[in-house]
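pinned: reference chain
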Amino acid sequence: MWVLSASGSRWLGAVGSLAVAVGGYTAGTLPVREPWGLWAPRGSLVTVTGAVLAYLGLTLLVAAWWRYGVLLARGVRDARERVLATLGWWTAPLVLAPPLYSADVYSYIAQGAMVLEGYDVYGAGPSVLGAGDLGVDAAASVGGHWTDTPAPYGPIFLVLAQGVVKLTGGEIVPAVIGMRLIALGALALIVWAVRGMVAGAGRRGDGGGDGCLGGGGDGRGDGCLGESGALWLAALNPLLLIHVVGGMHNDGLMIGLMLSGVVLAARGRWVVGCVLVGLAMMVKSPAAVALLFIGVMIARRDGGVRGVVKGLVGPGLVAGGVAVGATVVAGTGFGWLRTQSVAGSIHTALSVTSDVGLGLGLLVADDPEPVKGVVQKLGLLAALAIIGSLAWRAWKGRIDPVLGLGLSLVALVALSPMVQPWYLLWGTAVVAAVAWDTRVGQVLGVVSAALVYETAPSGHTPWYGFVVAGLVLAAGLVWGRREPWGRPALGTAPVVDGDMERTRP
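pinned: its C-alpha cells
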C-alpha cells in the first residue's frame, strides 16, 4: 500500500501536521486578549470541532512518524534519503499556528517585557505587569500557577525574549511568531548537532549506522542511514514538533546549544564546546550535566592524573565563566540561582517522586508536603547516583560518553520533582545521535509517541489524555517486544577520533 511507503508516510504526516495547526486556530492555547482577532475564541462547537481535528491530525502524525522509523530501521532507501525534506513538510504547517499545547510562550513574552519595564524577573511573576506596560496582554494569558512564579530561566533566554518584545512592541501575534522563530532556530541547531555527531561516528565506523548508502549528494537528504535514523528520533519526533515548534518551549534551545557543545567537544574543541554548554545552562540549568561527560572525554584523551583533574575542573571553569559573563552583560542579576527550585513547588502528574511522596504523605501525616519534599529529594539523590555511575562507566570505556549523557538526562527527568512531557526530549535527542536503532532508542520512541497525548491542544491535561497515552505506551511496548531493534546500546570498546576519545558500541 502506498500509504505505508516512505512517500505515503511523508504525506500522511504533513496532512496530520496541517490538521493540528488548523485545529489549533480554535482549540489551541489561545490568548485571553488578542486585539487582532486572529486567535480569538469562536464558540464551544467550533472549539470542540477544532480539538477533534487536532487530535486526529496528531494521530496521523504519530502513525506516519512511527511508520517512517520502521522503514528507516529496515534500511529503505527513499526513507533515509529524504529525512530533511520530510522535516520541512511536517514543520511548515506549524509555523504560523497559534500557541499549541502550552501557555508557556505567554510567560516568556511577559518575562521579556518585565526585563524591559525594569521589574525583577527573578523576584516576581508576570502578574506585576499593569496597564500601559509592554506584554500586559501576554501576562493576562499566562496559565495557572505561573502567573505569580518568578522566572526559572537563565539570562540568555531572557535577553532573547526581551529582544522579541522590543521588536514587536509586546503585541501578542508578532511576539508569538518571534518566539517561534527562536524555536525554529533551535530545531535547526539540533539538526546540525545530530548530523555532526553521526558524521563523526561514521568516519570512525563506530555506530553511525552502516555509513552513507548513496544519495549523499543528490540534494534529497543525507543518504546516511545512521544520520537519517538519528534525525528521525531527535528532530522528526512529534513530541518535539508539537512542543518545541508548536508550543515554543525553550527546552529546544537548551538541547540545541548543549548538543552542539558536545559535538565540538567530541571533535577536540572542548573549550568552545563548554562555552556553548554554558550558554545552554543560561537557558535552562539541566544542560550542566553535559559538562560532566565532556570532562570524561577530556580525561580519557589526556589520561593520567592530569587528564582527570583537567576533565573535572576545566569544563566547569569555562561554563562558569560564561554564566557569570552572560549574567553581568544581560543585567538581569544572579537571581536565577535562587529560582531553580521554583518549578518543583508545582505538582505535575508525570513526576513519580511527587506522586509517591504525596501519596505517602496523605497516608502518614496531616500535612503531606514535608513527606513529599523528602521523597522528591531522595529522587534527586538517586538521579545523581545514576548520573555518577554512568559517568564512571564512560570513563572506564564501557559506554559511549554521549550515550551516558543521554541516559543521565532521561534518569534526571524520570526522578525530578516536576516533569513535563517535553522534558523527555532532553535525553532523547542526545541518545538519538548515537543509539537511535537500539532497544533504548526504540523505547524512547514509544514513550515519545505516548506522551504527545498527555496534553490537549489547549494546554490542559485532561484525564482522557492519560488514558490514551497509557494505551499507546502499552501497545508500543508490546510491539517492541515482538519486533525489537537489535543493536545493543551498552557494552563498548574505545575508539579514538582525532584528539578526543570516544567508544564503539
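why pinned: Confidence is low (pLDDT under 50) at residues 204-223, 491-505. The beta strands are 493-497, 500-504.
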